[in-house]
Design goal:
Blueprint lengths: L1 H8 L7 E2 L4 E10 L3 E10 L5 H27 L8 E13 L2 E11 L6 E10 L4 E2 L2 H4 L4 H13 L8 H7 L10 E3 L3 E5 L14 E5 L16
Parallel strand pairs: 3-4
Antiparallel strand pairs: 1-2, 2-3, 4-5, 5-6, 6-7, 8-9, 9-10
């Protein structure tokens, strides 16, 4: 049922991840009652001996705990239907790590009644050298949003029957709020769009890979992408 979406989306559920640069462990939590199920998997830097590694771990832990608290509060406020117990899941994917950088995406899934649940993508791009979670504005300057927006709109409109031009242009317009969810590798920027943001629910959560070469003229000279 609803859990199927999660199984297809969350491929890292029981893994500890060994990648170049740093090792990531998976923190696991599960609680199941007759009213709800809470199942959480989120990343933690192993052997966090530096202030920045501890900062990353704390950031992720606090984020997940806050989301869990919100869900439990909502679950108590809604009339319970024994045929449809509520669900809250968190899982993640590590997109890239180096010795001083980690890029991860966390997915939260809520079901508190209705036709289907809701999945939201949250991203964390953590500069371990400066103990800071980065925004796009920390990486690029100038009219970079216009370039990213133009590229994304062009790619999403290739979705054919799913793509409504006005919907796509609104959801992928060059506004900071449309591009809060992104991850990085050493060669590309990945934009993660939310459910309903640019395409209907049936189309899922599209991702657009923007080669860094498209943005070379806008990369901050003193930013992490020039290390």
């Amino acid at each position: 049922m609803k859990r199927v979406l999660l199984i297809l989306t969350f491929l890292f559920a029981y893994l500890n991840v060994a990648l170049p640069g740093i090792d990531i462990d998976t923190v696991k939590f599960k609680k199941e009652t007759k009213e709800y199920t809470v199942e959480l998997y989120y990343p933690k830097i192993r052997n966090a001996g530096t202030e920045s590694a501890r900062g990353f771990n704390k950031l992720i832990q606090n984020f997940v705990e806050d989301k869990k608290t919100e869900f439990l509060k909502d679950a108590k406020a809604i009339d319970y239907d024994p045929s449809l117990p509520y669900e809250f899941f968190v899982n993640y994917d590590v997109k890239y790590t180096s010795n001083d950088f980690v890029s991860v995406i966390l997915y939260t899934y809520y079901f508190t009644g209705g036709a289907h649940g809701s999945t939201i993508a949250y991203t964390f791009n953590y500069d371990l050298k400066n103990n800071k979670n980065l925004k796009l504005s920390d990486l690029f300057e100038g009219k970079y949003l216009n370039v990213i927006s133009e590229y994304c709109i062009k790619e999403i409109l290739k979705e054919g029957d799913y793509a409504d031009e006005s919907w796509v242009k609104e959801g992928a317009a060059p506004k900071p709020e449309n591009y809060e969810a992104f991850t990085l590798s050493n060669k590309e920027l990945i934009i993660h769009f939310q459910q309903y943001q640019v395409l209907p629910y049936a189309a899922g959560m599209p991702e657009v890979v923007v080669p860094k070469s498209v943005l070379n003229d806008y990369i901050k000279k003193d930013g992490i992408l020039n290390r």
